[in-house]
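Two records follow; treat each independently.
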Amino acid sequence: MLLVTLVVIGHSWTMLPDDPTTDHLYAFLYAWHMPAFVMISGYLSRSMVWNRTKVWYGVRTLLVPYLIVECLLGWFRIHVGGEHLEDFVVHPHWPLWFLVALFCWRMLTPAVKAVPRPTAIGLAVLASVAIGWSSWEFLDIARVLGFLPFFVIGLAARKEHLELLRGRAVQVAAVAALLGVWWATGHIDDWAQTDWLLFDSSYRDLDAHGWSVVAIRLAVIGMGLVGALSFLALVPRKGGWFTAMGAETLIVYLFHGFFVKESLYLGYPGWLEDHVVLGWFVTTAAAAVLALFLASPWVSRALGWLADPLGRIQQRLDRTVDLAATVKEPYDVPGARELVGAGSHR
């Protein structure tokens, strides 16, 4: 839940005017929060196998909502925002690339698990480096392969590995590591640029040439890994209402883009130009509240039909079948025989 809240905050920061402090905060956040998000997704995908049930579940919960929300967001941008779009389904909107990527990663999972972990991680890093020389933009393949090392590392992790992050010494080291990431992102223009952290541009688009691109990509991957592990070491592990909201991560991810776009259409960035400091606090707080609003039970239930329509329909059908079976066979209900027997006796 904390990571998806940071996703909403990060996307809301794109409306802020250029400012050295704001740009540094943006670079710092994007250096590690999406790597952490992808790593956790890999850890939670370890049970993936190639069978009809698992593959259909991926189609139903990732590709179907992607197509629905992609079309809705495209319609919203055209008819509400007056934008002109081309090929918006095959070029995902900026929040939605993750659904396509997660589907691809999960389909690769059985193959990844079939090879030794060091080999899998090495091949993932190689794919991430290699895709930078390509300019293929179809379905954001650059991000699919760019972030692949973090997914594979999460896939290779075990519970005992995560337990190692609980130690006090590790947590102290995590604070130092995040300070190091803060320093590195503060000087990112000296060795790269912020766009490297997004994994969505080719080396040519980044105006980078020669073999130095390999060193930069590896440095970005390493910084993302250090930041993600530091986050996992420091994040609280207590349960509660905030933790429970994490079950609605998909709802938050799918629908926050409409609010960000509407803010743009209403001219909110113009107000931010005149209120830089206040605007940062207002934007950040509003983004956090938006994440909580979308994850709230009443909102998530209402939007759940768009996030997983086929699953909701199947649940309704299953309840109908169960009800029909109960009516047809009343003695299957605990206590039914005794109740019917007592009625006959009277």
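The next record belongs to a different protein.
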Amino acid sequence: MADQGWMELPLFPLNTVLFPGMVLPLHIFEDRYKLMVRRCLAENRSFGVVLIRQGREVGGEAVPYDVGTMAIIAGIQPLTEGRMNLVAIGYERFRLRTVHYDQPYLVGEAEPWPLTEAEGERAGELVGPMRALLRQYLSLLAQAQGHKINIEQIPTDPYTLALLIAIVLQLPPAQKQDLLHQSTVEQLLIAERHILQREQLLLDYIIRTQGQQWEGGHSGYLARN
């Protein structure tokens, strides 16, 4: 660790964006990630999940985005030949300063970058409208997909609500990464408001004009991902 606050963090590059509070099931089969997971378990440490900017998820080297989320290992199921099924949970964002390729898996010099909550009353004022937009979005998405996304209770605090919306939004990874890059809860909620309004119009249009063309309960909307 070169400076206070910076740490060496094992990195798992994926084509998925992980947010704090999000559950991520993983199937570990590559030797380098078997080694990484064993070390994390032995040292009781977390690893970082980063979206791939360039490269491949399996084999070869990947160039990640510079903002990711730290993950803890919440459960593990050993399989044959050292493979394993793993459940990870995101808990805090980080920023990368450098990435090292001298180990079997990527290691980054990372700094914790928690989502800031101290924006005064503005974020709180967004909660009511955003909860309503999320309900509308989930209802339309259920019609488009042919099945419901069950959320027992929509949060009333800005931080948890902003992260929940980021998790449930059906977006391409690059757009999810844009949300992960937002500096504050208020900025994240505002970015999500624009997306929810846009997606609501799109879903409503699809439901009204293409309902007879869907097969198997899925629409062309999901083909964008």
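Discussion point: Residues 144 and 207 are 6 Å apart (CA to CA). How would you locate this feature using only the token line?
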